[in-house]
Amino acid sequence: MGTGDFNLYSHFHRQFAEHADDELLRTAQDQSYRYCDIDKRSAQLARFLTDLGASPGDRISVQVEKSPESLCLYLACLRAGFVYQPLNMGYKSAELEYFLGNAEPAVVICDPRNEVTIRSIADTAGIDHVLTLNADGGGTLPDNANQSPAEFDTLHRSKDDLAALLYSSGTTGVPKGIMLTHCNLLSNAEALVEAWEFTASDRLLHALPIFHVHGLFVAIGCVLLSGGSMRWLPAYDAREVIRYLPECTVLMGVPTYYTRLLAEDSFTAKIAENIRLFICGSAPLLEETFVEFEKRTGQRILERYGMTETNMNTSNPLHGDRKPGTVGPPLPGVEARVCDQDGNVLDIGETGDLQIRGPNVFVGYWKMPEKTTEDFTGDGFFNTGDKGRIDRDGYVSIVGRAKDVVITGGLNVYPKEVELFIDDLPGVRESAVIGVAHADFGEAVVAVVVPKQGGQLNESDIINTAKEQLANFKVPKRVIFIDELPRNSMAKVQKNVLRDSYKDLFN
After folding, report:
1. pLDDT of 71
2. Cα dihedral angle (399, 401, 405, 407), rounded to 10 degrees?
């Protein structure tokens, strides 16, 4: 990072120049894209959006399916100095109203299927430009950009210039915009390339979504900084992954990916022998999955730990002991410590609040200076909200989550958001949302509901109504009805009691 230009694309571009005629990605339909193809297309998109009137620092909100064109759009935003705001395809209109109203983007790019809804929201929010992009790379964005010249001088970006704005669902029901700089993304990608020894000979099996950190910044960053290549799948399918594993060297996934691989008889040590590294994150990996995977393949999954606010913080080592149940030591340049409630640093092996400091840590919450101040310590450590401990070898273990977040299939669900939705339903007095162990998803969202006196509530009605209003991954898998929520002496709902009561719900 010593060039003075922190634009992430400028650092990627060294590989684009060196590997211009090499394959960067190949789709499941065997369409091949060279580095030079992606470079030219991202230049064209950057030129079009700039000519449309977008300026450096403007947000570009994107809710589209994964495609090579969507990758080019992300890269175009980097090189033009726009702030890329990816949105999960599962978000419904009420969620999108908040995200677009809060981010105030200059341009929104959406799937054509959602254009009517998005246009209505954009008109209300005063957003001038709505363009479309579908899974096949068609739509008004590519059609218009085809007329633009494929030349664009990447803008110089400084250390604190924003590269991306990602939203986490709020623990208080209000989602927070997480401001990530070019320096955050670049420093983290460099640390991961070093830690995992990525080279131009690596081929990543990319089956992750690209609307959050794992698939967008970690996976793509490692490939583009090292000159590697990708087999690009639109979504995760265990049999498709097994089909392409022999041609690849690295797989990144969430725990659900690995449990689904293990459920396939065709997943064998022979199929996996060309993979030098299986990486897992976004949710805790069960020790039994770790052990069963090693037994089946002879390989140990490398577990790491990150979050939207920080990208990756720690990683089990490429060479050395990968301890099950830990997420490894901090990455190069990252510091981790564990503190008590008063902020005192705890000794080795003690459990407390996990705090992180480093160039990977975001600069703050969008339009929430008070919340930013609250979540950082005076000496610059970020309070992750996770409970952790650090052993004598420096390995970090995540032992709990102070914020009660449910991680289902690698995606974060904040209970308060779902509770607020359920509490508004007719006949509901109150609710508590918890995560319950689930063999496939890691955790499943479960709603525990107290009906009003005489209220006639039905599990399937609540679930179906939730499906209309909430992104699918937030919808409860089960709804349990009880007379009273358990509370402590301070009248706080005891979610630990609920989790224990329903821990065998999916067994």
Report:
1. 98
2. -20
Residue 90 identity = G
Q: How many CB atoms within 10 Å of residue 15?
A: 20
Q: What is the pLDDT of residue 420?
A: 83
How far is Cα 258 from Cα 254, in angstroms, rounded to an integer?
7
Domains (ranges, CATH) in the chain?
8-181 (3.40.50.12780), 236-401 (3.40.50.12780), 406-501 (3.30.300.30)
Estimate the crossing angle of helix 93-103 against helix 115-125, to 10 degrees.
40
DSSP string, 492-507: -B-HHHHHHHTTTTT-
Question: How is the beta sheet containing 335-339 ordered, strand by strand?
Answer: 335-339, 352-357, 382-390, 396-401
Kindly report which listed range (154-158, 309-313, 454-458) carries the lowest average pLDDT score.
Answer: 454-458
Q: Which among 63, 95, 101 has a CA at the least distance from the CA of 170?
A: 95
**By C-alpha distance, which of 88, 82, 74 is closest to 410?**
88
> Could you tell me if 225 and 394 are in contact, meaning their C-beta atoms sit under 8 angstroms apart?
no
Q: Which contiguous run of DSSP H or E holds residue 180?
A: strand 176-181
What are 419's two structure tokens? 């509770």
Using the structure block, give the residue that is written with the tokens 């297309």. 41
pLDDT at 1: 45
State the pTM of this model.
0.87
Q: What residue has token string 């640093």?
A: 345
Closest CA to 137 of 29, 220, 287: 29
Return all residues near 99 (Cβ < 8 A) that are at least 6 apart: 61, 85, 87, 91, 167, 175
CB neighbourhood size of 30 (10 A): 7
Identify which of 250, 246, 275, 245 has the alpha carbon closest to the alpha carbon of residue 193.
250
